[in-house]
Design brief:
Keywords: Heme, Iron, Metal-binding, Monooxygenase, Oxidoreductase, Signal. By secondary structure, this protein is α+β, with helices and mostly antiparallel strands. The protein has a domain of 157 residues: Uridine Diphospho-n-acetylenolpyruvylglucosamine Reductase, domain 2. It contains 21 helices and eleven strands. The strands form four sheets. The protein has a four-stranded mixed β-sheet. A three-stranded antiparallel β-sheet has the order 3-11-8. It has a two-stranded antiparallel ribbon with strand order 5-6. A hairpin with a 5-residue loop joins strand 1 and strand 2. Helix 4 packs parallel to helix 12, helix 7 runs antiparallel to helix 8 and helix 13 packs across helix 15. The chain is globular, with a radius of gyration of 24 Å. The N and C termini lie far apart (91 Å).
Length: 537
Amino acid sequence: MFFWLACVAVLVAAVAFVRRSRRNPLRLIPGPPAVSLLLGNEPQLLEKSVGEMESEWHRRYGSVVRLKSTFGDDRIMISDPKALQYMFNTAAYTFPKPDDQRAIMLQLNGRDLVWAEGETHKRQRKVMLPAFGGPEARALYPIFLSIVERLTTKWQDIIGRNQDGSYAELNVHSWLSHATLDAIGEAAFDYPFGTLDDSETPLGKAYQNFIIEANGVRDTARIVSDGIMRRMPPLLLGFLFKNLPGQRLDRIRQTKKVAYGVAEQLVKDKGQAIAEGRTNKDVMSLLVKANLAESGSRRLIEDELYAEMSLILLAGHETTSTSLTWILWELAKRPEVQTRLRDEIVAAHAQAQDALSLNDIEKMPYFQAVLKEAMRIHPAVFHMNRVAAKDTALPLFKPIRLTSGQLVDTIVVPKGTRITTSVGCYNRNPDVWGEDADEFRPERWLSDTSTSAKGASLGVVGNLFNFSSGQRSCIGWRFAMAEMQCFLAELIRNFEYSIDPQIQIKKVGDGIVIPVVVGKEEKGSLMPLRVSLVSKD
C-alpha cells in the first residue's frame, strides 16, 4: 500500500512540475543547459574566476540569461541597462532582496539599511542621509590622508629594510584592509582601531578579515546548503543561525556582540556630547544628531543605530580595500598607464601649496579616467540578488530572441522569480560601453562619447553600477570615493608596482570579490605585488 501511495505521489509531483514548467514564461528565455539535475548551472560558476563564466553566457545568449539553480529552480541573470534601470530606479521596492538573504543579514548586522525594505527602508535612509552628504564626506579627507600617510611610512620602512632596497613583495590586500579599517574607525566613529600599528582593540580585532571569513568558500556543499536555505522559512533560518554550532556562525555571533557593545557606548557618548553642545564631524555623531532631530515615530530605535554602525563597518572597509587592491593589480600589469598616472599626480602635487586636496585630485582627468575604468572592470561586488514581489513586465534596451524564435523587447517575470543583477556584466555590456567593453582603456572616459545606453542611465558615479542605483544606491558612495581617491593618489605618487609573472591571480567570493593565488587558495585572500620606491631623479 505504501509503495503505491509513494508512486502516486511521485507521479502527481512530476505532472505538477511539467505543467508548471509549461506555464512558466521564463522557459523561453535562452540560457545554457544545466550540467546537473540537482545543482543546475551552479557548478559552472566555480570553474573559473568570478565573472568569467557569467560574461561568456551574456556574450552568447544576450543581456538576459535563464539559468538553472539548485533543485531545478529557474532564475534569470540580467545585465540589460533598461531592465536594471527599471528594477533599481523606477520600481526598487517591487524587487526586494530574497527572504533567505534578509534572514542572514538580520543575523549578521541586525535591522540595518541593507536589510530594510519598503517604508522601513525609506525611514532609515531619510535619517541617515544627512551624515553622508557631499560636504560631510569631503570634511573627512584629512583623516583619510593621515591614514594613507601612515601606510606609506610602513611600506617605506619595509622596503628600506631589504638588503638591496629594490622592492618588497607585499600582500597589498591585507595591508589595505587594515588601512581602510583604521580609516572607517576614525572617520565614521572617531574610534581608533590601530590595526596598522598592531594595536588590538576588541572591535578592530573582531572585524579584521570578517567578511572573508564569514562568507567562507563557495563549493558544492555550499551550493546545496544555499539551495536548502532558500526553501526555509525566514524565522527557522534565523533560529538556526542563532543556535547552530560552527566556526563561521560563532564568528558572526561574536562579532555582532562586540559591535553592539561598542555601538551602545558610542551612541551614549555622542548623545551626551550633543546635549552638552559639543559636536564632532564623524559619521556616527552626525547620525545621532540627525536621529535626535526626527520625531519619535520617525527615529531609529537604539538597536537600529547599533545595526547601522555594524553595517558602516562592514560595507565601508572591505569593499574599499578590495577595490583599491584590484586597481593596483591592474596598474601593476600596465606600467605605461601607471607612469602616465604618476606623472599627472606628481605635476599636480608640485602645483599644490601643500598636500593634494580632494579638489586637486578631482581636477586630474587621467586620474579620474583610470579610477573609473578600473572600477568598471573590477567591481568589488559582482552580483546583487533580487526577487520579484509581483508579476512584472521588464522593459529591455536591446530585444532578445526567445527560444521560440520570437523577438521581444519586454519579458514577463513571474512573482517569486529570483533575479541575479550582474554588476560586472553590466559594466562590460557592449551596448553601454562599446565593442571594446572587455578592454581596460581609460581613454574612453576622456572622449565625448557617452557611456550610457540611450535613455537608460544607471548608478551614481559615471554610469557605473558598482554602488547600485536609485533608492537602493549605496548611501556611503561619496565617502568611499573620497577615500579611494585619497589613497590611490598617495600610493601611486610614492610607489611603483609590478607583478611576479609566475603568480596567477584568481577572483573568488560569494559576496565581495577577493583575490587568491592559484595553487594557494587555502591561504585565503592574497594579492602579492612587488612594491618599490619611486625614483626621485
